[in-house]
């Protein structure tokens, strides 16, 4: 019975690892995962009750919660269920209406009498019938509210269905869908240096870089790290892949002095003119690492003053204590708050609550440690806090508004300058269980489990990323509301979105809390529905979708992603044949983004010098030195193989020293040759990381470390001003632009 229940809820009974070995999932793991989904499975009787509940659940509601159908395919049908006596089967009438997202009536219909039920089931001693009705065919793609009313001699039964009509493929610009190609820069925004920023790259820096890259370098895309909200507290709360929320932007990226209210605020201007404050900013700029805590405090100090000015000049207090907009800017803010709706309300409420409760007790970290009355966002205590702290909640809404303003301005600049893609954003797989997403949408997450991956060559013990997975069944029951919200908000500011660990649309490796990573199991997701919604939001936003499909990915998943026009993510380091030799450019697919490296892998200079091997050896003091030597020897062979691949393409650089064994340094010519190697591929997009271009040796993140390595903190060695004077970038850009403008080799 346990196996049957696990199967119903998508828990895979086994899996094959990267070496082809089969792993059978233990009963203990199945029970723990089902428990994390909210089921009671501690005894045989409990499992039997859950099986009965699963079987009866669809019959206890007239309509399914959601139906996703592809435009152009067979429209299919939707189900309506109701209790009915056998003698009444042919008397049933079903009436329905379909309204769009604006509430406008788009279709209405009626069926019956003489409807024939397609299925009969006894539920709690009462006969129920299921009828199949046609999906309207004349509706365009989009989200619809279908409301139905079933009529029998005994009375009426009402039901509601979320109908989602989707395209079969994601968006791809005509220029790229017909063999065209582009190139761009990839960077960690926080790592940018400039004469004006406050020790962390900001949206003004990004604007400067976009303008320069588009006009002077011919770049068509700028790839960014996730810009999600973080707590901005080192070292545990700074990873862009473990955010507080994936729905909203990190205010740390605000160019504070560009906020209109900062210029209008006498208090803000006084802070900025203060010699002690200016000295603090100088120290932040000069630092080799981003000091998240100090930079965040500095920005909040000035933004608090800006918000006070905004309240004074652009909001007015009503007699009932509420605030109303005053003037055009106040109205723009109110419009933003209204459009963002409940997600922004709950996010801002969470931030205000967390701030207050940590002020009372600095030891409080996550909402699970809050007083119980505040753990439920719909509680009376939370509502009372919202009323008492309305101004503070508005402050966090204000921060999101000005951040969205600045980022939207950068995105519009890219479009205005003719970049075919523009900003390329990154959506993290999940968010921190102690953060606002988990608090605001507790029903959508399995908080008793973590997501990760099984053992492989990269992580022999498996990986636990510490991120609570979304529950696929609760997600579907909500009409995929959270998934839609995530896509909309992350597609709003650019022309491309990369989905981290895109296999999570199909299956995700769940690890019960307290279990080792090796004791997890895959849980399957409704991938056809999710791919359809992804395509719908992509087409609506005219944005390219990229799937990070590294690691062990079954062929059928790759084929399904390709059919949905999700671009594959191809990393040079991994594009090898079985004998270790590098694949040639013409072996890359056209529907792909090609890169040399990623944030979790060594930079090109670090790879060439074996820096990653040396660092891991230093961190593992007891590591066998013979194993380290073997790794370095294998790296040397990899370098020889790569040079051979470059030679075959006629790309061996002139500045490469004549040596029998390649040396430890990457010359500008070698860096250019490696990128030209990728540029010759049919891949629609090639990205060059800023760190590779300037020859950085250390990588952004060393997986498996937190305090022992400065992850997500290292700045680029050159400032933006210096980069514009550096000959390496325009030389590489010119070569990439020329190569990408030519037809790919067959």
Briefly summarize what is shown.
This protein is α/β, with parallel strands linked by helices and 746 residues long. A hairpin with a 5-residue loop joins strand 5 and strand 6 (105-111). It is globular, with a radius of gyration of 28 Å.
Q: How would you characterize this protein structure?
A:
It is a single chain. The protein has 746 residues and is of the alpha/beta class. The chain contains 24 helices and 26 strands. An eight-stranded parallel β-barrel has the order 11-12-17-20-23-24-25-26, surrounded by seven helices. A five-stranded mixed beta sheet has the order 3-10-9-5-6. A four-stranded antiparallel beta sheet has the order 19-18-21-22. Strand 15 (315-317) and strand 16 (323-325) form a beta hairpin. Helix 5 runs parallel beside helix 12 (390-416). The two termini are 55 Å apart. The model has no long low-confidence stretch (mean pLDDT 94).
Features:
single chain; 5-stranded mixed β-sheet; 38% helix; alpha/beta; 8-stranded parallel beta barrel; 19% strand; 746 residues
Roughly how many Å is the radius of gyration?
28 Å
Number of strands: 26
Structural class: alpha/beta
For the termini, the CA-CA separation is 55 Å
User: What fraction of the residues are assigned to beta strands by DSSP?
Assistant: 15-25%
Q: Specify the number of helices.
A: 24
Mean pLDDT: 94
Largest sheet: 8 strands, parallel, barrel
């Amino acid at each position: 019975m346990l196996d049957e229940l696990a199967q119903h809820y998508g828990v895979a009974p086994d899996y094959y690892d990267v070496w082809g070995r089969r792993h059978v999932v233990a009963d203990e793991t199945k029970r723990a995962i089902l428990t994390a989904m909210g089921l009671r499975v501690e005894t045989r009787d409990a499992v039997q009750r859950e099986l009965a509940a699963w079987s009866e659940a669809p019959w206890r509601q007239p309509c399914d919660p959601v139906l996703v159908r592809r435009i152009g395919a067979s429209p299919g049908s939707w189900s309506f269920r109701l209790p009915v006596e056998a003698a009444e089967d042919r008397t049933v009438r079903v009436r329905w209406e379909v309204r769009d997202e604006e509430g406008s009536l788009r279709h209405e219909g009626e069926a019956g009498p003489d409807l024939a039920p397609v299925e009969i089931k006894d539920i709690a001693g009462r006969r129920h019938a299921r009828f199949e009705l046609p999906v309207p065919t004349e509706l365009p793609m989009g989200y619809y509210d279908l409301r139905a009313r079933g009529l029998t001699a005994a009375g009426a039964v009402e039901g509601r269905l979320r109908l989602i009509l989707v395209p079969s493929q994601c968006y791809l610009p005509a220029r790229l869908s017909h063999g065209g190609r582009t190139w761009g820069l990839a960077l960690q925004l926080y790592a940018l240096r400039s004469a004006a920023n406050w020790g962390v790259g900001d949206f003004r820096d990004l604007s400067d870089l976009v303008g320069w890259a588009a006009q002077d370098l011919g770049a068509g895309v700028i790839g960014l790290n996730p810009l999600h909200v973080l707590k901005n507290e080192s070292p545990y709360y700074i990873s862009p892949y473990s955010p507080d929320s994936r729905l909203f932007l990190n205010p740390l990226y605000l160019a504070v002095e560009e906020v209109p209210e900062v210029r209008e605020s006498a208090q803000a201007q006084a802070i900025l003119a203060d010699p002690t404050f200016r000295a603090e900013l100088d120290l932040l700029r000069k630092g080799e690492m981003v000091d998240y805590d100090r930079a965040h405090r500095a920005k909040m100090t000035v933004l608090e003053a800006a918000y006070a000015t905004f309240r004074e000049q652009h909001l007015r207090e009503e007699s009932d204590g509420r605030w109303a907009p005053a003037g055009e800017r106040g109205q723009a803010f109110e419009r933003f708050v209204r459009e963002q709706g409940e997600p922004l309300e709950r996010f801002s409420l969470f931030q205000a609550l967390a701030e207050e409760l940590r002020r009372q007790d600095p030891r409080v970290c996550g909402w699970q440690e809050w007083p119980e009355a505040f753990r439920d966002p719909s509680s009376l205590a939370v509502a009372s806090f919202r009323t008492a702290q309305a101004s503070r909640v508005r402050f966090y809404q204000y921060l999101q508004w000005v951040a969205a303003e600045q980022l939207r301005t950068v995105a519009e600049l890219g479009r205005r300058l003719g970049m075919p893609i523009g900003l390329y954003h990154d959506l993290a797989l999940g968010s921190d269980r102690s953060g606002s997403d988990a608090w605001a949408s507790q029903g959508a997450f399995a908080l008793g489990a973590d997501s990760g991956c099984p053992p492989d060559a990269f992580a022999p013990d498996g990986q636990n990323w510490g991120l609570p997975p979304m529950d696929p069944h609760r997600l579907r029951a909500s009409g995929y509301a959270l998934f839609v919200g995530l896509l909309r908000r992350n597609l709003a500011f650019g022309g491309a979105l990369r989905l981290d660990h895109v296999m999570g649309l199909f299956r995700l490796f769940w690890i019960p809390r307290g279990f080792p990573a090796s004791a997890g199991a895959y849980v399957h997701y409704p991938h056809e529905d999710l791919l359809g919604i992804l395509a719908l939001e992509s087409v609506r936003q005219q944005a390219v979708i990229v799937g990070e499909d590294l690691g062990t990915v079954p062929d059928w998943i790759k084929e399904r992603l390709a059919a949905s026009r999700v671009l594959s993510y191809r990393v040079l380091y991994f594009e090898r044949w079985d004998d270790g030799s590098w694949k040639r450019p013409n072996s890359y697919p056209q529907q792909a983004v090609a890169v040399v490296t990623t944030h979790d892998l060594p930079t090109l200079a670090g790879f060439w010098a074996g820096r990653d091997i040396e660092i891991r050896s230093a961190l593992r003091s007891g590591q066998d030195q013979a194993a380290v030597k073997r790794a370095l020897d294998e790296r040397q062979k990899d370098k020889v193989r790569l040079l051979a691949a470059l030679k075959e393409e006629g790309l061996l650089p002139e500045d490469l020293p004549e040596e029998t064994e390649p040396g430890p340094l990457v010359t500008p010519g070698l860096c250019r040759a490696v990128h030209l190697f990728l540029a010759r591929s049919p891949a629609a997009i090639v990205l060059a990381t800023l760190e590779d271009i300037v020859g950085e040796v250390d990588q952004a993140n060393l997986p498996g470390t937190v305090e022992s390595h400065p992850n997500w903190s290292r700045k680029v060695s050159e400032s933006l001003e210096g980069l514009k004077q550096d000959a390496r970038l325009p030389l590489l850009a010119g070569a990439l632009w020329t190569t990408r403008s030519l037809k790919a080799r067959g």
